[in-house]
Design brief:
By secondary structure, the protein is mostly helical. Helix content is 62%, strand content 0%. Helix 2 packs antiparallel against helix 4 and helix 13 packs across helix 14. It is found in: Membrane.
Amino acid sequence: MNNKLILFLSTLFPRTLRFLPFHFHPFFFHLFYFLVLSVVGFLGLKVSKPRTPSNPNDLDLFYTSVSASTTSSMVALEMELFSDSQLILLTLLMFLGGEVFTSVLDLLLARNKLIHNKLLSINPSSPSDESPTHATHIELGLVSVPYSQSQNQTQTLSDNVVSVRLKYNCLRYLTYVVLGYLVVVQFVGFSLVSLYMTVVTSAKQVLQKKGINVVTFSLFTVVSTFASCGFVPTNENMMVFKNNSGLLLLILPHVFLGNTLYPPCLTLVLMVLEKVTGKEEFSQLRKNPNNLGYRHLLSVYRCCLLVGTVFGLNVIQYVMFWSVEWNSTIMEGMNLYEKVVASLFQVSNARHAGESVFDLSSISSAILVLFIVMMYLPPYTSFLPVREEKNDGKRKRKSAVECVVFSQVSYLAIFVILVCITESRSLKEDPLNFNVLNITLEVISAYGNVGFSTGYSCARRLKDDGTCRDSWVGFSGRWSNKGKFILILVMFFGRLKKFNMKGGKAWHLS
């Protein structure tokens, strides 16, 4: 009986994996993926022992797991609380939740869908759960044609097989390229940061005082930065290294390579591989980037516009940050070179990476509003100096769902209102910490999966009851359980926002 049950389950599981991807929207797969990742991460943090004797509550542990899985880096617990094993677990969560890695899963799913759909179109009578042998035949173009078919049908079938084989190979090569890019960039970054932390005494002493292993710190920080998470093993984030300009410059490229400039870098790699190998697949990937449905593969023209937009927005932030904060207290004790590098690092992280070298609570409100705008912008926002003409006669009728779906701003406004309701008591009793600007920054930061936070200070409380203790946690770490739960929803919503970027199109503000 047990053998029959095992046999049944062994056949049911592969069929389920083949059936589900073709009958459900990708949104639900991504949602399920991040939910499972968050739950597994929570269980791992729960059973492992922290570095210091403490007993964090389950909601804060789940909050941290969700934050790492969705690459949001919203801090509810001090980072130095976690042991080496817990930091490695968080590193794994950030790696698996990063946009580049999840895009590899999208490519694998697209390959399976291609095999499934084309197999049915070539042989409609074949069942939906064909064996891997058929898939291999599709890949190699070895599909037998019945003798009874006409010459035209045979030729059409042959052309179809060739087309399928080319597209399948394009997906396969692209998967290998993305995986190679993912591993090589992070390995190089890990090696350089490890070398720096070993050679430079001032940086090494910081880790020694905190009891953090150099290898753990280097791996954790590089993976976190590349995944645009923003977690750092130190309580102070990167503030404790603001005078180590060399370390900031080593980490800075990963802010762009894993996020805003990933499409241009991927296109550049494909161009090099096309020149070196001369394979037709790389040429197809570069000339027809939209054919595969891989959202990170953009045309050369669009990549140029994206690069210009990214650096243009950085220049705007840099100039404003300099003009407002150059002689402020946050720059005390820094020379000209350190100010330049630290300012560049701070504004570059404002888009999505979320690492900080300055205390955001000490930055002026004007700059905080600028950061809010930057965090709201999607990673591939670009200025398109081309007017797209719309043919009214060819406009598609909107579905009922499209007509009631709100825009991103609408949902964020709703989330801010809900948080203000759950934290209404704190807004009245502690207005210097709990104000609408700080709440808005926290919500937009969670939505953009950035991790910027103004933190919480006992010195800003109007009524000191003697029980408040300062700790290195984000502002949301001081929220009520209801407020934290709302922010968890915001983190999931932000991580899956690509499925609703066209929301609100049925609304005409005129």
